[in-house]
Amino acid sequence: MTDKRKLHLSLFLVFLKMSPFTFGGGYALIPAIEREVVEKKQWLREEEIADLFAVSGTVPGAVAANSAAFIGYRIGGVSGAIAALLGICLPTFLLMIVLSIFYVQFKDNPKIEAAFTAIRATVAALIAFAAIKVARSSIVDFASGALAAAAALLLFTGIHPLWVVALGATAGILWVQFRGMKGKSPKIKEKEPVFDYMI
Description:
Oligomer: single chain
Largest sheet: none
Low-confidence stretches: 188-199
Distance between the termini: 30 Å
Shape: globular
Strand content: under 5%
Radius of gyration: 19 Å
Order of helices and strands: HHHHHHH
């Protein structure tokens, strides 16, 4: 087996293993992705993962599938994206077929209701943990902290997340220009551009 095929198989198996964490729209998957992709495999850095999650949450589609596609493409190109997508989607697809067959029989079962209530509570904790992890690598100064707080408040107003991200990007550009006019360099971490592979 060539190195490229080994990489594709590894991508498929990593996301296949993480597929059960895609409850809650995929945000609960973030801690698992960081553990597998950053800590174990060391394919990407934590800062890159944070950027990829930001983009994945603003484009159409499920966050889990978008994240898998972006990460797979970043690591292995188009074929890597396909391998990661198959890994993340295949178990869920098969599970939904099985659940749809038996849903009518079990939908009113109190034990099933209790199980899903517990799952939702657990997903909320996973999403909160993921938010803290991303914040630790993204909030680097007072300006980024204030922007994060403002974005959180805007989300409670019901505004679409895409507009919140667009406003955040605009604010970031204006802040860099403002700092430049005052002769101060903004605090930007030195790192390889996340999307340099697209150029």
